[in-house]
Design brief:
By secondary structure, the protein is of the alpha+beta class. Helices cover 37% and strands 17% of the residues. β2 (42-47) and β3 (51-57) form a beta hairpin. The longest helix has 20 residues, at 78-97.
Length: 119
């Protein structure tokens, strides 16, 4: 599957040099420094006339939030929940080992595979 996710930020949103540096730093982290099996990879950073586009690998299963909402009682069985927690914890520990924090970790920002594995 060659589909990708593209996140576009309007150039007018960059009101300071620091804000522009932030997107380059984010690209560097997500394309190289944070390589990990449970962290989405950013493949490219593209400049358009109106915006800057970050091209991410596609994870076709949707968010963990939607997976949980689809479960009976909105809960995973304990072994599944523990495996999800292990994978998320592994990714967070990997970031923290490199002095990086997520700042906005929530179920909507955790993507899951569509291959039947809930995490």
């Amino acid at each position: 599957d060659n589909t990708v996710i593209i996140r576009t930020t309007k150039k007018t949103d960059f009101t300071t040099v620091k804000a522009l540096e932030h997107i380059y730093r984010e690209f560097a982290f997500l394309s190289q420094k944070l390589a990990h099996p449970h962290i989405i990879k950013c493949a490219e950073l593209l400049h358009g006339r109106q915006g800057i586009h970050m091209v991410f690998e596609n994870i076709p299963g949707g968010s963990l939030s939607s997976k949980v909402a689809a479960q009976v009682g909105q809960r995973f069985p304990i072994p599944v929940a523990m495996e999800c927690f292990r994978q998320i914890g592994s990714a967070i520990a990997h970031c923290h080992d490199r002095d990086v924090c997520h700042r906005s970790l929530c179920l909507e920002h955790v993507l899951v595979h569509a291959d039947g594995d809930p995490c």
